[in-house]
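Example record for the data management plan.
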Amino acid sequence: MVFAFLISTISAYQGYHVQGGSLEVGVASTRAVVISSIQILLFNLLLTQLLLA
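Corresponding structural encoding:
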């Protein structure tokens, strides 16, 4: 649930704030994937530390 929320909100935010043409859409989608991947790694670490503590 946490990871799905992260992916959907980050992608929606990047898509909503894109300006320009089709090239900028590609840049925004790449940015959304990179940010989502980093956030998933960080939240995975955080959740693991909380559940194992």
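Summary line stored alongside the record: The mean pLDDT is 95.
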